Amino acid sequence: MTPIAHLSRRYRFSASHRLHVDALSPERNREVFGKCNNPHGHGHNYIAQVTFAGPVDAVTGMVLDLGELDGFARRELLDVYDQANLNTLPAFLDEVPSTENVCVELWRLFNAFPHATLRSVHVEETGNNSFDYFGETSPS
User: Fold this and answer.
1) Element (H, E) at 7
2) Is 108 helix (H, G, I), strand (E, B) or coil?
3) pLDDT tens per residue across all 140 residues of the chain
């Protein structure tokens, strides 16, 4: 029987965003989002952790090739998100770039990695705020 192991890998990126909903009044946006509604935005040094599960390869002893995962993360995450204004990215043109939504979007990105099964995405926004997503959706 082949053992299943979980591997977690962290990636760091810096990005800015503004939390704002056009359908809400300026007053309501300030009430809901507080200082995160600053018209000029604000930035964070994010830490994204992705956790994959898979069988431990009998030859390599690994769940996946870290070089392949790092290359994938470079192309799909870091080249796009690092030093970006999240509000301008295609994924957030019609979505508030809250860290909850960033977490969901990173799930979508990393779920396409073909060499193991994505189990969770964890995003730290600040030392006090972090978010987890496990791929679930609410019932329709």
Assistant:
1) strand 4-17
2) helix
3) 889 999 999 999 999 999 999 999 999 999 999 999 999 999 999 999 999 999 999 999 999 999 999 999 999 999 999 999 999 999 999 999 999 999 999 999 999 999 999 999 999 999 999 999 999 876 66
Structure tokens at 113: 């990695």
Q: Is 51 helix (H, G, I), strand (E, B) or coil?
A: strand
pTM score = 0.93
CB 43 within 8 A of CB 16: yes
Question: What gap in Å lies between CA 72 and CA 9, rounded to an integer?
Answer: 12
- H helix intervals, 1-128: 26-33, 66-73, 79-81, 99-110
Residue 93: give its domain's CATH number: 3.30.479.10
18 in any annotated domain: yes
Rg of the chain over Cα atoms, rounded to whole angstroms, equals 17
**Is the residue at 32 inside a domain?**
yes
Whether 139 is covered by a domain: the verdict is: no
Total residue count of the chain as it appears in this document: 140
Tell me which amino acid residue 107 is.
W
Residue range(s) defining the domain that contains residue 51 = 4-133
